[in-house]
Amino acid sequence: MWQRIVSIIFKEFIQLRRERRTLGMIIAIPIIQMTLFGYALSTDIKNVSLVVWDASRTPESRELIESFSQTEFFSVNYYATDYRDITQRIESGEARVALVIPPEYSHHLSRRETARVQFFTDGSEPTAGIQALANASLIVQAKGAELMSQAQLSKVSLPVLLEPRVWYNPAMQSSIFYLPGLVGLILQMLTVMLTAFAIVRERENGTIEQLNVTPLRRGELIVGKLIPYIIIAYTQVILVLTTASVVFSMPIRGNLLLLLALTSLFLMFSLGIGLLISTISRTQFQAMQASMMILLPSVILSGFVFPVESMPEPAQWVSAVLPLTYYLRIVRGIIVKGVGMEYLWLETVILAVMGVLTLVVASYRVRKSLT
Known about the structure:
- Helices cover 68% and strands 9% of the residues.
- By secondary structure, the chain is an alpha/beta fold.
- It folds into 2 domains: 48-167, abc type-2 transporter like domain (abc type-2 transporter like fold, 3-Layer(aba) Sandwich); 173-370, no CATH class.
- The longest helix has 32 residues, at 174-205.
């Protein structure tokens, strides 16, 4: 009995060795998972983009700004001249937080009065927002303690007081951050995997030859294969948004029609990647494994869970070539912030280029594989 079992074991290992693609994915997927999680899995929020409006323009105000820039928590990337400029930076996603130093800042310090400074944070990412507020409070308290020590003051209240404001999500609800992101995640997972199985299923069932002898042109076959998945994808988007809005009370502040229109650009990429996978996979199992190798980096490095700016530079480079990164900015920008094309045009252009190129290459590969 054991001899027969051992024979079957050897047979399975020999079969796996012959399936080089499957064997390669079995080895590669755990390595990729550990690498991605090792780079991105961190609760430490660093390098948060900060915009500063220094209305005081004094040595004291510059010292406060330097206290922020010298830490690893904030990166002073922009300087504003009014509240409108700050709003534009945060709504466009260029800055996550803002520091406003009023004109009378140095005057209050010289008179040994409490100087108040404003701190705005983007609440659409609650984890980053909470840590940004906490770090900003610590920096201001440390600066106040330093000023008290220098002046040899004994009063209880600190010289500098931080006045925080949270935009878009004042209650810091995590669902406001994750639910819009699920739209992009579910959309990509569904379309990539279903489309990846499209041609492979025909090949496994032996019906690909029948399709080749029909009057259908290859372009017509590709369009016919994609349209059902486009309909399914939009149905899923509407279902997810409806569920999030009705069940979890997620507000939709922007233009829903604009979101649906820009979703088509992301769909072009997802459908194109699915078609490409279907041309290189011989079985549905291989197609599923190849899909996971595409989906894993997207989930971890796109900003769905962890802020991109807190990741190491190599991870940020990968994030920059992931279409889900830009689609998440569009979804969260429209749903959470209520912004329009004036702030989303760059993400739209990048998604359009990626989507068109991927779909064109995939269509060429499918036509070639059907010959």
